[in-house]
C-alpha cells in the first residue's frame, strides 16, 4: 500500500462497471421497497430474501466514497467540485419532486386536506435544499404515509460531499502509510458510531433525536471512508481482486448463507462491518472484472439515480389507485419506475451533467472514449 494518490491515478483503468453496479443496487432497493409495500406474498418474499443479500444503500455509500474522492483528487477546485455535485443531484431531484407533487394533486389528495401555505412552502424548501428526509404531517394519509422515504440518503450524501475536502486536507501531502493510518483511525471512530446507533435502535428508534441521528452522516460515514481507502489503495487491491468477481462473490454468498442467515445477521442498511467489508470486496471485484461490460450493456446510459428517486413516488401513487397486494401492481410499479428513470436521464440528468466543469468522466458516448470512468 505504498502507492501515492498520483501513482494510483496513473494506473487506474479508464473503464469500469460502476454504472452497472449502481444500476443493480438501485434495482435492489426498488424491488425490495416495492415488494414490501405491495405486500406481495410467496415469490415476493423470496425475491426480497434473495436480493437482500446485497443491500443497495451500503453499496452506494461505498461507491460514492470511491468515486467522489477520486473526482476531488483529480480536480480539487472547490467551486468546480460543488458545482458538479449540484448538477448531479438537484436537477433530477427537482424534477422528481415536481412530478411527485403533480401525481398527488392528480389523484385529488390535496382536496381532502387543509394545509397552510407556509407549511407547503417549508416542505418545498426542505425537499429542494438539504432536508430531503422531511415529510410533513399533512402527507401522512397518502399512500405509505411518506411520499418518498428513500430521500434520506440524499441528505446523507450531501453531507459526505461537504466532508470530502476536509478528509483530503487531513491526508494531503502525507506518505501513503501515514495517510492510510489516518483513514483507518477515522473508519474505526465512525464504525463505533455506527455500532452504537445500531445497538440503540431497540431502545430509542421512536425518539426524535435518534431519527435525526439516522439522517446525519455520522452512522454511515465509515462506509464512505472505506470507499476512500479502497480508491487510495487501488493498485494493491487491483492485484488481488481484478478479474476475480465470480470467486469473491461465491465466497461472500457462502459466508452470508452459511453463517449470516443462521446467526440472524442483519443484511439491511445497518449490516455488520464484516459483511460490509465483504460487500466492498465484491463491489470492487465486479467493477474491475470484464471492465468494459458496463459500456457494452448500458452504453453509458445511467438510470440508477432515476430508479432510486422515482420508485417510491410510483409505489405511493399505485397504492392510492388501489393496486397494492397484486403482482400486477408490483410489475406496473417497476415498469413505470424504469420508464421515468429513462426519461429523467434523457431529458434532465444527462443535459445537466453536460454543464459540469472539467469533468473526469463524461456520459456523452461521442466523447467518452478518451474520458476516465471515475466520476459519479
Textual characterization of the structure:
By secondary structure, the protein is mostly helical. The chain has one domain (16-370). It has helices at 5-11, 18-37, 43-51, 56-74, 78-106, 117-127, 152-171, 176-204, 208-214, 221-232, 234-241, 245-260, 273-287, 293-298, 304-320, 327-353. 39% of the residues are buried. The model is unreliable at 1-10 and 364-374 (pLDDT under 50).
Mean pLDDT: 90
The tally of beta strands, per DSSP, is 0
Class based on secondary structure composition and strand pairing: mainly alpha
Which range does the strand content fall in?
Answer: under 5%
Largest sheet data = none
**Overall domain count:** 1
Low-confidence residue ranges: 1-10, 364-374
Share of helix among residues?
55-70%
What separation lies between the terminal Cα atoms?
25 Å
Total DSSP helices: 16
Order of helices and strands: HHHHHHHHHHHHHHHH
Radius of gyration: 21 Å
Envelope shape: globular
Amino acid at each position: 500500500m505504498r502507492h501515492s494518490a498520483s501513482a494510483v491515478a496513473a494506473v487506474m483503468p479508464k473503464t469500469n462497471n460502476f454504472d452497472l453496479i449502481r444500476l443493480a443496487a438501485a434495482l435492489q432497493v426498488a424491488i425490495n421497497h416495492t415488494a414490501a409495500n405491495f405486500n406481495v406474498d410467496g415469490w415476493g418474499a423470496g425475491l426480497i430474501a434473495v436480493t437482500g443479500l446485497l443491500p443497495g444503500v451500503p453499496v452506494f455509500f461505498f461507491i460514492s466514497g470511491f468515486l467522489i474522492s477520486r473526482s476531488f483528487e483529480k480536480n480539487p477546485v472547490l467551486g468546480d467540485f460543488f458545482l458538479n455535485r449540484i448538477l448531479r443531484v438537484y436537477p433530477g431531484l427537482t424534477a422528481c419532486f415536481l412530478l411527485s407533487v403533480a401525481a398527488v394533486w392528480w389523484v385529488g389528495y390535496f382536496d381532502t386536506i387543509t394545509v397552510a401555505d407556509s407549511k407547503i412552502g417549508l416542505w418545498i424548501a426542505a425537499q429542494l435544499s438539504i432536508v430531503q428526509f422531511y415529510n410533513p404531517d399533512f402527507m401522512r394519509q397518502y399512500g405509505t404515509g411518506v411520499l418518498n422515504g428513500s430521500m434520506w440518503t440524499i441528505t446523507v450524501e450531501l453531507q459526505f460531499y461537504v466532508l470530502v475536502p476536509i478528509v483530503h486536507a487531513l491526508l494531503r501531502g502525507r506518505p501513503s502509510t501515514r495517510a492510510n493510518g489516518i483513514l483507518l483511525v477515522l473508519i474505526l471512530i465512525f464504525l463505533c458510531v455506527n455500532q452504537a446507533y445500531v445497538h440503540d435502535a431497540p431502545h430509542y428508534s421512536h425518539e426524535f433525536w435518534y431519527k435525526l441521528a439516522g439522517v446525519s452522516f455520522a452512522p454511515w460515514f465509515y462506509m464512505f471512508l472505506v470507499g476512500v481507502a479502497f480508491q487510495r489503495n487501488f493498485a494493491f487491491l487491483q492485484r488481488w481482486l481484478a478479474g476475480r468477481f465470480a470467486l469473491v462473490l461465491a465466497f461472500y454468498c457462502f459466508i452470508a448463507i452459511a453463517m449470516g442467515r443462521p446467526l440472524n445477521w442483519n443484511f439491511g442498511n445497518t449490516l455488520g462491518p464484516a459483511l460490509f467489508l465483504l460487500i466492498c470486496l465484491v463491489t470492487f471485484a465486479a467493477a474491475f472484472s470484464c471492465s468494459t461490460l458496463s459500456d457494452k450493456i448500458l452504453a453509458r446510459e445511467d438510470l440508477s439515480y432515476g430508479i432510486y428517486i422515482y420508485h417510491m413516488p410510483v409505489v405511493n401513487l399505485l397504492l392510492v389507485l388501489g393496486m397494492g397486494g397484486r403482482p400486477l401492481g408490483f410489475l406496473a410499479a417497476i415498469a413505470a419506475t424504469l420508464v421515468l428513470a429513462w426519461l429523467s436521464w434523457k431529458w434532465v440528468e444527462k443535459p445537466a451533467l453536460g454543464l459540469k466543469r472539467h469533468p473526469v468522466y463524461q456520459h456523452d458516448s461521442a466523447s467518452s472514449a478518451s474520458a476516465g470512468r471515475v466520476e459519479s
